[in-house]
Specification:
The protein has five helices and eleven strands, in the order αββαββαβββββββαα. The protein is of the alpha+beta class. It folds into two domains: 175 residues, no CATH class; 53 residues, no CATH class. Strands 1, 2, 5, 6, 7, 8, 10 and 11 form an eight-stranded antiparallel beta sheet that branches. A hairpin with a 4-residue loop joins strand 5 and strand 6. Helix 2 crosses helix 3 and helix 4 packs antiparallel against helix 5. The radius of gyration is 28 Å and the shape is globular. 24% of the residues are buried.
């Protein structure tokens, strides 16, 4: 009986220690994963595609300043920037658009929401998949583009990871992880980024890292040179005022933002300005608010 009692006490002690170890492991696991789960927030996701708020990318030994978040960047502004990016691939004769219209709509809306919700210690990451024609348009391939977006020092930063990388359906991400772009170093690449002619120009900090001013594009008023003999000082002939540019119509006095937007809409409706001129000027007017 005494031997049986000793065995029971021994097994009881072992069971108690096992429960204690398991409980400690769960608590430790919660303490490790809790802050990470609190930092990461998914704004939009469809399989591998996503727009997320994540902890700020901080390479070892690199002092990373705080981001200027939350940041209220208009959807039109983000779309205009992304639309202006082209990429040159080694097997292509000319540069192609990096994002198609569907991708621009998804990224513009969701990156806007993410930047407005992110904190100073958080970045916004994205992965978007588009279908691009190959073999004279007979087939289409799934191509992924990924990146990291954040605002600092009056600039919108985009660090690209994968750019138009071919991906298969149900690809194992443990074997083929998505590269989201890093401040540490540029990812190996065979592509080159370029600004679309007539679009917004960017500044390249690295081949994979570009910046745009948050304030947007400033379009100077067009002032044509005076024609010879059109009037000179001292002749008694009054010089003609500069002709009005379609993008900068001549006005008498300072008009309100609403009036200027209405004039701009009318110019576009009458096809006196292009769609690109309309978007650029509209952003300039809105940035004055």
């Amino acid at each position: 009986m005494e031997e049986t009692g000793n065995r029971i006490r021994t097994w009881g002690a072992r069971l108690f220690m096992a429960v204690l170890l398991v409980t400690s492991g769960v608590i430790a696991g919660c303490a490790t994963t809790g802050p990470r789960e609190a930092r990461e927030k998914t704004i939009w996701q469809l399989r591998d595609q996503h727009v997320k708020i994540e902890r700020q990318d901080r390479p070892t030994g690199v002092a990373v300043p705080a981001n200027a978040h939350p940041a209220d960047i208009p959807v039109d502004r983000l779309r205009s920037m992304l639309e202006s990016i082209e990429v040159r691939l080694p097997d292509k004769d000319k540069a192609v658009r990096l994002f198609n219209d569907d991708e621009l709509n998804i990224l513009g809306e969701n990156i806007h929401t993410a930047l407005a919700s992110a904190g100073s210690g958080e970045d916004v990451t994205f992965a978007i998949v588009g279908h691009y024609p190959v073999l004279m348009g007979v087939l289409k391939q799934r191509m992924v583009t990924t990146g990291r977006v954040f605002c600092q020092n009056g600039q919108i930063n985009i660090i690209f990871g994968d750019v138009l990388r071919y991906v298969r359906e149900n690809e194992d991400r443990r074997l083929y992880p998505l590269l989201l772009g890093s401040r540490a170093a540029a990812t190996p690449r065979e592509w080159t980024l370029a600004a679309k002619p007539g679009g917004e120009a960017f500044t390249a900090k690295r081949p994979d890292w570009i910046t745009y001013p948050i304030a947007g594009v400033v379009v100077p008023a067009a002032v044509p040179a005076a024609l010879p003999g059109s009037g000179s000082i001292g002749t008694g002939t009054k010089a003609a005022p500069p002709a009005a540019s379609p993008v900068n119509p001549a006005t008498t006095g300072k008009k309100s933002v609403e009036e200027r937007l209405m004039i701009l809409n009318e110019l576009r409706a009458k096809q006196l300005i292009s769609e690109e001129e309309y978007r650029v000027k509209r952003l300039e007017i809105l940035n004055e608010l």
